[in-house]
Amino acid sequence: MTDATQLIAEMGARARIAARVLAAMPAAAKADALRRAADALRDAEPTILAANADDMAAADTLSPAMRDRLRLDSGRVQAMADGVAAIAALDDPVGQVIDTRTRPNGLALSRVRVPIGVIGIIYESRPNVTADAGALCAMAGNAAILRGGSEAARSNRAIHAALSAGLSAGGMPADAVQLVPTTDRAAVGAMLAGEGILDMVVPRGGKGLVARVQAEARVPVLAHLDGNNHVYVDAAAAPDMALRIVLDAKLRRTGICGAAETLLIDRAYPDPAPILRALIEAGCELRGDASAQALVPGIAAATAADWDTEYLESILAVRFVDGPDAALDHIARHGSHHTDAIVTEDGATAEAFLRAADSAIVLWNASTQFADGGEFGLGAEIGIATGRLHARGPVALEGLTTYKWVGRGSGQIRG
Fold it and tell me: What's the whole-model pTM score?
């Protein structure tokens, strides 16, 4: 047994004990603990920012997108704390009765939401995940084992210390949310091999991390793939709205998974040039097809790889298409099933697009940057699930539960 294997096994054993306690905690008690954790995060802001400054100073080789994800400031720390407090205000899914039925023999059956158990979260760069994931797991009655990236190690330790102190002050077990204390990559392997230790693994990071988790995991994986997201501007789009949505979807924050990476424009849209010029004037590099290049000088030629790239920076691929069906065909070939949007005033076209787009989130006349658990009223999120099983889209409290069948009888037998 390696040191990493032993470490994860020991953390998992403690987490399993904590999970049993959490599963039985009343909703009000869990909410009180989370509110205390939010206050502890606010109080620890100077310590958290100092730790983050050290991480940023050592992160000069990271890409601009990764540095943006790593960086904390007062507003982001306060938003992190507010997110934890928002989770405390949500309805507790544990114990919720999903449906009921009574069989002809009088046996009363119900499906009831229960915690998953012990959840491992493996993530890169974003130190806010330490608070978001820990709080979500705890409120849903799960114990969490967090393994952040080495680039955010100091930030993660400071956030975890504050979060854990607040949760403990509220009566939660000390092992409710544990942070793996080493940046040794062997710990990731030990978590992925942790059948019987972890009940589910959630990866938050780039393609390399997600691919490794999916390839090596011996426990169920709730996958969050890249956000190769599209905005389709239909022929019937309102020009002012289309311009606002495209600029926001691409440029509000380029480094988040909800940022648009490809702009599709109907060839029948009457005046696309203002959208392209506005993007260029805002500092966005455009890589387009022949139609885009002919329309606005200075647009670089898109390569085949551009249609499949999650840039996470101020670069946008642009293609003109022959109507919504062609847009849907492009999305089906090149999208990542994350978030796609249509801009149009034609309700029938919009509804057809919403039905046909096979994405976790599909939007009509709204920016793809709304792909966020907080914006969906779910509080913080543990990720955007792009698969088709268990949970899809922003995964918050309900997505961190499963269910069991409960039967209430009066002596029934199958004789």
Answer: 0.85
